[in-house]
Write a structure and sequence with these properties.
5 helices; mainly alpha; 2 domains; single chain
Length: 162
């Protein structure tokens, strides 16, 4: 691979070693090679498979319904943009609180008669963020801290036996 002089760079971590510099030679608007086009198309197909797997399973043998889901997904697809209501946090307490809230919200909606397939993950995540930002947020974080602490203690106990 030829890296153009002056390409921007980023630092990455590989196998725990941080600070490794990697060039970012691809820029918007440049022509793509056949191999690059193949990789982009492969990534698109993998993302569709990963993000639609559960919904497609709910379609059973109905190919038209499955294709409609694929078409809808691709109509709003953007490379590099996270979607589907995902939430990532490097803070384990925040991640645990969000996970607990999303599960509770989904369970409550199903309990009210909504089909799980009709519940949009982005709506659930938005509601969970709203709760975390409100007066109940600190209580959720307190519970999450306890879970994270217990998990870490359990891991230490297991590691001590190794």
């Amino acid at each position: 691979m030829e890296i153009p002089q002056g390409s921007p760079t980023d630092t990455i971590t590989i196998a725990g070693m941080g600070g490794l510099v990697i060039p970012l030679p691809h820029v918007a608007g440049q022509p793509t090679t056949e191999a690059q086009a193949h990789v982009l198309n492969q990534t698109l197909a993998e993302n569709a498979r990963n993000n639609l797997r559960d919904k497609i399973k709910e379609c059973g043998e109905n190919l038209a319904a499955g294709q409609a889901l694929v078409d809808e997904y691709l109509a709003s697809y953007e490379f590099g943009k996270r979607g589907g209501g995902g939430f990532r946090s490097s803070d384990p307490v925040e991640a645990q609180a969000m996970d607990d809230l999303r599960k509770a919200i989904t369970t409550a909606l199903v309990g009210k008669g909504l089909a799980k397939k009709d519940i949009k993950p982005s709506d659930v995540t938005a509601k969970a963020k709203e709760i975390l930002a409100g007066p109940k947020g600190e209580n959720m974080r307190k519970r999450a801290r306890k879970i994270v602490k217990e998990r870490a203690e359990s891991a230490q106990e297991l590691l001590a036996d190794l």
